[in-house]
Amino acid sequence: MTRLVQYLHSIHPLSPDLRDHLFRVLKSTELKKKDRLLKAGEVCRQIYFVEQGLFRCSYVEHFKEVCVWFMKEDDVIVSVSSFFPQEPSYQSIHAMENSRVYSITYDELQQIYYRFPEFNYIGRVLTEKYYYLSEERHYLLRMKTASERYDHFVRRYPDFLERLPATHIASYLGIALETLIRIKNKKQKSDLDQAKK
Q: Which of 123, 153, 182 is the last residue of a domain?
C-alpha cells in the first residue's frame, strides 16, 4: 500500500489526513493467474491500483475476444463505461500473472473527492493519462499500418513482449496472429542483417 500512496503523492502532495484515510479504506486483494477481476455483465464497483502483476481487459465480439488494454505495476484499472455510470460492463478483466491490487469502491472514491479537495487534482491527472492512452490506441488502429502498430507497441511496452502471449498482443493491435508472426520474423531478419554489416 505504501507504493500506491507514494505514487499518488508524486502526482500531488497528500495531506496527513488523506494519507491516513487511504490506509483505512484501501482493500488489498491477491489474485492468481487467470483469475477474473471483472466479468462482462457485472457492474464495476471498484477502482484498482496494481501493486504487482499484469491484467488484460477484453470483450467478445462475434465470438472472438478483443483485447482493449493491458495494465501492469503502478497502473490504475477500471472499466470506465461501467464504473462511472455504475452500469453493467461489456468488458472482462483478467489477471495474466499472480497479482496484488488495492481497491476502493465507487462510493468511497466519491467521498474522498468530497472530503479531500486535493484528491480531485490527482483524479484529473489520472483521467487525462488514461484518456490520452485510449486516444493513442484509437489513432494507431485507424491511421497506422500493422507494422507501425507493432513498432509502437515494442517501444512503449517492451516488457509486455515477454509477459504476454502473442495471441493477446495480436488482438490488441487489431491484427491476425499470422500477421504478427510475419512482422516479428521480418523485424528479426532485418536486425540480423544489420548486425552482420
A: 123
Question: Which CATH number fits the domain that encloses residue 75?
Answer: 2.60.120.10
Is the model's pTM score more than 0.85?
A: yes
Look at residue 112 and tell me if it is in a domain. Answer: yes
Rounded CA-CA distance 129/177 in Å is 29
Higher-confidence position of 103 and 191:
103
Q: Determine the Cα–Cα distance for residues 117 and 18; give it in Å rounded to an integer.
A: 10
Please report where in the chains the cell 499500418 appears, as a residue: 145
Question: Do residue 19 and residue 84 come from a single domain?
Answer: yes
Find the radius of gyration of the CA atoms of the chain. Answer: 19
Query: Are 117 and 150 within one domain?
Result: no
How far is residue 146 CA from its own chain's centroid?
Answer: 21
* pLDDT score recorded for residue 197: 66
DSSP 116: -
Residues 55 and 73: beta-carbon distance below 8 Å: no
Across 47-73, average pLDDT: 94
pLDDT at 49: 95
In a domain, 138, yes or no: no
| Other beta carbons within 10 Å of 165 | 11
Q: Which structural domain range is residue 191 located in?
A: 144-197
**Count of domains in the chain?**
2
